[in-house]
Amino acid sequence: MIRFEHVTRRYEPGGRPALDDVTVEFNRGDFVFLIGASGSGKSTLLRMILREGLPQRGKVTVAGQNLGLMLERRVPDYRRSVGMVFQDFRLLPDKTVFDNVAFAMRVIGAKRSQIRERVTSVLERVGLEDLGRRYPHEISGGEQQRAAIARAMVNEPAILLADEPTGNLDPRASDEVMKILRWINASGTTVVMATHDRAIVDRMRRRVVQLHDGALVRDDERGSYDPPRGSHAWTILSEQETSGALRAHDPRPAPAPAAEPAPHTVTADAARSAGEDVPAVASFDSDSESTPEPGTTPEESPAPGEEGIHVSWPDHLRGPQAVVDVPEPTGEFDGAEMPDLDRDGYTEPESGLEPEGEGADPERLRDALRQAVSSHTQMSAGPEGAAEKPRLSWLSHAAGGEVDRQGSAATPAAPGSANDRRDEIEDARLRAQSSEDEPPIHEPDHPASRGQGPRRRLPVPPASPAESATAATPDEGEGPASSDPPSSEPAPPDPASVEPADRDVPEHVPDADRPASAVDAEGEEVADLPPEHHQSDAASPADDPIEHAPPGGSSPDVESPEVPKPRSSASQSTYTDTRRTAEQLGVTGEHRSIWRRLRRNR
Ligand SMILES: Nc1ncnc2c1ncn2[C@@H]1O[C@H](COP(=O)(O)OP(=O)(O)OP(=O)(O)O)[C@@H](O)[C@H]1O
Known about the structure:
Strand content: 5-15%
CATH superfamily of the largest domain: P-loop containing nucleotide triphosphate hydrolases
Subcellular location: Cell membrane
Distance between the termini: 39 Å
Family: Belongs to the ABC transporter superfamily.
Keywords: ATP-binding, Cell cycle, Cell division, Cell membrane, Membrane, Nucleotide-binding
CATH topology of the largest domain: Rossmann fold
Strand order of the largest sheet: 6-7-8-3-9-10
CATH architecture of the largest domain: 3-Layer(aba) Sandwich
Oligomer: single chain
Bound molecules: adenosine-5'-triphosphate
InterPro entries: AAA+_ATPase, ABC_transporter-like_ATP-bd, ABC_transporter-like_CS, ABC_transpr_LolD-like, Cell_div_FtsE, P-loop_NTPase
Subunit structure: Homodimer. Forms a membrane-associated complex with FtsX.
């Protein structure tokens, strides 16, 4: 589902690679812990899945879509099919909890009634039903993270990326968050979580992928935080430990050197060619992009020319394979919180939207794209829709087995409920079990304890004619959008003037591929807002035509995203954070009012 093939990523020409020839694959329904010392490349890897940064060498593929060939105007849509949560929550500070979650639905043009119903359900699911009217600063860190998860999941993405989601939380709040992530994963959502939390990794015994200095040094199916004694990773870390380089990040005593290193489970090492020279200057390896790798299937590696128009969407990505991977591997759970997927009808394979191989009909793919966008808004599929296309909703799935396909009557395990108590008991049992094996160690030098806030700015996709030339080819058959002149584009964020500190090395994203049209709640392309809708801030939503104008003005019932209004004297950091959050939620260029106001609020 997510595949890195010999991916090398440098932030600076000639600098040390943040990712160094990484080859790894995450499958549907996986729960993966991504571990490694600070600076080892975990966040970089996650951000590359979100298509924030492209490799200088190698290829990142998600559901058959080569992200290096994805057009810029497709990126917002793509990001909506990937949820992401962060250590520092990144809630919009001037929005209530409810509105923060609703924002992700407004971005896709969902109807008010859908938003109301869906957000209410999601907040119940994460135990925040009573806190919807509060602002982020009025709730605890654990509650903020649950709100952030609710926002990431409200559109039912197929992939959830979590970058140290428990890093700022105490153990109890961490447990709540992990419980929710387990539920989400149990619904078939692929979860990739970067963490330094040894206790959590050791307790859950899921797949562990370890990075070290940008290289993948371990990939264990049911791993613990520490690499197996004698393994390749263990040897490397031991050497580092001896030299003192890892002391700041791993308080444990260094293991004694192995007499005979055992065979290890390294994936990347097997593929690494020793001494390979990596170009110092960012340059896209077009050869590796266009040449199908031996051994890959057509679905996973679409034919040249078709890659740019493949779609990857939440529903169809949750196939039977995800369900197969769902059961807890170690018997830590008694199954009480896991619904019977077969009984609940969620194991039927979906059809029709799988990534296409060679010869795919562009028209059909376009329809699939529209349909997929539309499906984001079908948050409460009615009986008819449910019968045609059963959905695997983490909301209903996670509700202790009481699955409701309509998504409205699911019983949430809110704090204090019977399900919640059962979970608490289970978690307590897990903790006890874990502590019998090995006392959990909380790292004193965890980034959270260092008072580490948002560490780096996410890259803003810049333009490059080189990639434009590379990427335009496969998408050219898609119609008028590809012929839009760059100069006709509205003004959304000007990375150079707005956020110089956030600039990344050029990543070859063509300006010309910014979106020229929006997609409404029905999945139809609609025209951009007329100029008169892009005016100054209105005193109240009722006065503001933007607030009430759906993208394209197609329906008064369709909500347009509200404009985040930074609370704290409109500081640059607030602006930057808000803008970054909006980008990650897939706010597109046609939401000009958002960008304009964000700039004005600096
Ligand atoms: N925007 C950036 N510009 C330049 N260098 C960067 C940028 N982001 C990350 N790096 C560098 O890339 C390397 C990997 O960083 P990354 O954030 O991926 O590590 P990490 O494992 O997530 O660390 P942590 O556990 O502290 O979050 C580090 O050397 C870091 O300094």
